[in-house]
């Protein structure tokens, strides 16, 4: 009898082990996987202190986590800091770090890493384009301007787990700002490898994913970081980013199943996608502005009459309804809806006019500036390689030609080339866009501050505008802040260093098997919240 029971027990244990094994196999297959996604451009840098581009930021967000971070819906939540306190006057923040948090090489993450990072960003020798965004920190402006030693920055590690940051004035958006303008970086790795510290074999990160491979202009692979503080909750094994400036090629790869997500597609396919791939289509308003920038250092664009004339002649209704056709809204203010709150935009008077009336006003302004049939205005108009952007550029050129007799030469280029030329002032007129760093009007007005050297592509320099913005940053009262920003925006609308065209809309295709990738106004989706189901 014992001999009969023994085989039965063996069979039972065998079947139980097999069942558990299959459960683990299928469970891990569904919980793991790789997300294959398009990225609109080749990263210009993955050093978080040396870039402000969104297509690089997508990747940086996965590899680094600041004191604060965002959830799946882009709401601010605790990051490397477990908690924080804010003084009654709103000017001193004390962050308590997570205990046991590690860099990917096993080194503890400390408050000192963040002190080093903030001082590195604001050190003028770093030449960080994002430094002006942090001028709200006490002494940041004179330090970044070379007028004070970096040791005087009011960011101090009180001990390994406590960081104190003092601000020049109460800053209601500070916790949102430092989500991605205060990433830590590994001092020891940077000192050893210099600019090559971001190579796959050298990089050290504190985020959910770490760089594993990078083939320039082709793809970049991020692998799950087992040292991340919340690694147990991450379901993806890896994220693959592919450079997809060619929208037709990206769309074909998506339909073939090679990509799980593309962040744009050929506009000509929009109706077909609505009818045949509705479950894949995601359209949502973002906190972003698409605009045309004029190089105010190059004649005749140093003349506000010329800039305003070109802005007036843009038929924004046609651009949104007939050219873009993706739910975009015409922009007459510099501030999208998501960043307004109770702020009242400084809309221009011409918003209430017909396009014919705007064209007549534009013609009069150009004539005052010395241009007309006998002396037509001519210039080159720059834009990056992208089908929808090309259509918008062509439409704008036709409008200027038809209503003002302007001669326009269209020039497209790789996005990184365009970015570099805009920063260096090597252009006349160009199309660009900005996604808000935080939900406050100042994130868009910042684009015109004279010391916002990395992002003020128009090279606009108006002392009155700057003074209003500086006073606003120091002002604790919300209503007074709004009044100051409204006055600054009114100057910008009248002088038109940039011409708002549309408010940005996210249009992407997402495979339904991808879960946790939520639409939100900031357009930030972290892989730590995402899973990829079985095909």
Mean pLDDT over the residues: 92
CATH class of the largest domain: Alpha Beta
Counting helices, strands and paired strands, the structural category is: alpha+beta
Share of residues in strands: 15-25%
Tally of individual helices: 16
Based on CA atoms alone, the radius of gyration comes out at 26 Å
Quick recap:
The protein has 535 residues and is α+β, with helices and mostly antiparallel strands.
Overview of this structure, please?
This protein is α+β, with helices and mostly antiparallel strands. The chain folds into three domains: 32-45 and 194-280 and 511-535, D-Maltodextrin-Binding Protein, domain 2 (3-Layer(aba) Sandwich); 65-184, Dipeptide-binding Protein, domain 1; 285-506, Dipeptide-binding Protein, domain 3. The protein has 16 helices and 19 strands. The protein has helices spanning 2-31, 54-63, 111-122, 140-144, 174-177, 187-193, 247-255, 270-276, 304-312, 316-324, 355-368, 387-404, 415-424, 442-445, 463-473, 478-495, and strands at residues 34-39, 68-70, 76-78, 81-86, 92-97, 155-159, 162-166, 209-215, 219-224, 238-243, 261-262, 281-294, 329-330, 378-384, 407-413, 429-435, 498-510, 514-515, 531-532. Strands 11, 12, 13, 14, 15, 16 and 17 form a seven-stranded mixed beta sheet that branches. Strands 1-10-9-8 form a four-stranded mixed beta sheet, covered by helices on one side. Helix 15 runs antiparallel to helix 16. The longest helix has 30 residues, at 2-31. It is globular and about 70 Å long. The two termini are 49 Å apart.
């Amino acid at each position: 009898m014992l001999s009969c029971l023994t085989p039965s027990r063996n069979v039972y244990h065998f079947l139980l082990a097999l069942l558990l094994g299959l459960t683990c196999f299928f469970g891990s297959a569904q919980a793991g996987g790789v997300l294959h996604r398009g990225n609109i451009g080749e990263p210009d840098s993955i050093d978080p202190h040396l870039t402000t581009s969104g297509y690089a930021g997508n990747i940086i967000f996965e590899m680094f986590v600041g004191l604060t971070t965002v959830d799946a819906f882009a709401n601010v939540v605790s990051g490397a800091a477990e908690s924080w306190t804010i003084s009654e006057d709103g000017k001193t923040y004390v962050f308590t770090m997570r205990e046991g948090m590690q860099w990917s090489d096993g080194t503890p993450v400390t408050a000192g890493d963040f002190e080093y990072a903030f001082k590195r960003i604001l050190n003028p020798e770093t030449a960080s384009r994002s430094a002006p965004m942090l001028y709200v920190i006490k002494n940041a402006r004179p330090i970044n301007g070379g007028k004070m030693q970096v040791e005087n920055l009011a960011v101090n590690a009180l001990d390994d787990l406590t960081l104190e940051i003092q601000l020049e004035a109460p800053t209601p958006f500070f916790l949102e700002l430092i989500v991605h303008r205060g990433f830590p970086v590994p001092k020891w790795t940077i000192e050893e490898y210099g600019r090559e510290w971001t190579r796959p074999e050298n990089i050290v990160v504190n985020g959910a994913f770490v760089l594993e491979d990078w083939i320039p202009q082709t793809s970049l692979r991020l692998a799950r970081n087992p040292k991340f503080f919340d690694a147990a909750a991450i379901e993806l094994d890896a994220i693959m980013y592919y450079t997809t400036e060619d929208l037709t090629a990206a769309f074909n790869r998506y339909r073939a199943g090679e990509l799980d997500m593309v962040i744009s597609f050929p506009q000509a396919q929009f109706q077909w996608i609505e009818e045949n791939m509705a479950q894949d289509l995601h359209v949502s308003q973002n906190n972003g502005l698409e605009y045309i920038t004029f190089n105010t250092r190059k004649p005749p664009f140093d003349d506000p009459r010329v800039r305003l004339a070109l802005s007036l002649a843009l038929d924004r209704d046609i651009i949104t309804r007939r050219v873009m056709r993706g739910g975009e809204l015409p922009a007459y203010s510099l501030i999208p809806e998501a960043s307004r709150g109770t702020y009242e935009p400084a809309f221009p008077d011409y918003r209430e006019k017909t396009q014919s009336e705007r064209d007549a006003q534009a013609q009069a302004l150009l004539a005052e500036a010395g241009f007309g049939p006998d002396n037509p205005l001519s210039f080159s108009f720059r834009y990056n390689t992208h089908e929808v952007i090309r259509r918008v550029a062509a439409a704008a050129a036709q409008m200027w030609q038809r209503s003002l007799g302007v001669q326009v030469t269209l020039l497209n280029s790789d996005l990184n080339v365009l970015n570099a030329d805009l920063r260096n002032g090597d252009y006349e007129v160009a199309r660009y866009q900005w996604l808000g760093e935080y939900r406050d009007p100042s994130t868009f007005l910042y684009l015109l501050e004279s010391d916002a050297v990395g992002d003020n592509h128009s090279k606009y320099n108006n002392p009155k505008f700057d003074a209003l913005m500086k006073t606003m940053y120091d002002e604790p009262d919300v209503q007074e802040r709004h009044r100051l920003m409204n006055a600054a925006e009114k100057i910008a609308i009248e002088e038109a260093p940039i011409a708002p065209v549309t408010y940005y809309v996210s249009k992407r295709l997402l495979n339904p098997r991808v879960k946790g990738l939520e639409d939100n106004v900031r357009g930030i989706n972290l892989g730590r919240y995402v899973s990829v189901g079985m095909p």
